[in-house]
């Protein structure tokens, strides 16, 4: 097992594909990059690795707290830029039946 320190990634927690709201998206996560390649187990055929740090996800309320934790534990880290909120125009259901609309009917 390799003892070299893997680079950590500090990023905003993305919204789940199963949720439409913004709950639990304000936090920051510290996750580790894989230190070794994944390989297939000869007995089961499942993919695996000896690197257990990739399973670790530490959550923080602020970016500064995540950076302070990484510095205190001598973990090299990269900070990803903040996610940009998509610009969503609210529409009503009646817009689907508006006369002269440019988009095609999809169903």
Descriptive notes:
There is one protein chain. The chain has 107 residues and is mainly β. The protein has a domain of 62 residues: Double Stranded RNA Binding Domain, CATH 3.30.160.190. A four-stranded mixed sheet has the order 5-2-1-6. It has a two-stranded antiparallel ribbon with strand order 3-4. Strand 3 and strand 4 form a beta hairpin. One of its GO terms (biological process) is electron transport chain.
Write a concise synopsis of the structure shown.
The protein is mostly beta strands.
Q: Give the termini distance in whole angstroms.
A: 55 Å
Could you name the CATH topology of the domain at 1-17 and 24-37 and 51-81? Double Stranded RNA Binding Domain
Major sheet strand order: 5-2-1-6
- Quaternary class: single chain
Using the coordinates above, name the CATH class of the domain at 1-17 and 24-37 and 51-81. Alpha Beta
Low-confidence stretches: none
Percent helix, as a range, is under 10%
Bin the strand percentage: 15-25%
Secondary-structure element sequence? EEEEEHE
Question: How many H/I helical runs?
Answer: 1
Structural class: mainly beta
Rg from Cα? 21 Å
Pfam families: NDUS4 (PF04800)
Region (Disordered): 1-23
Keywords: Electron transport, Membrane, Respiratory chain, Transit peptide, Transport
Main location: membrane
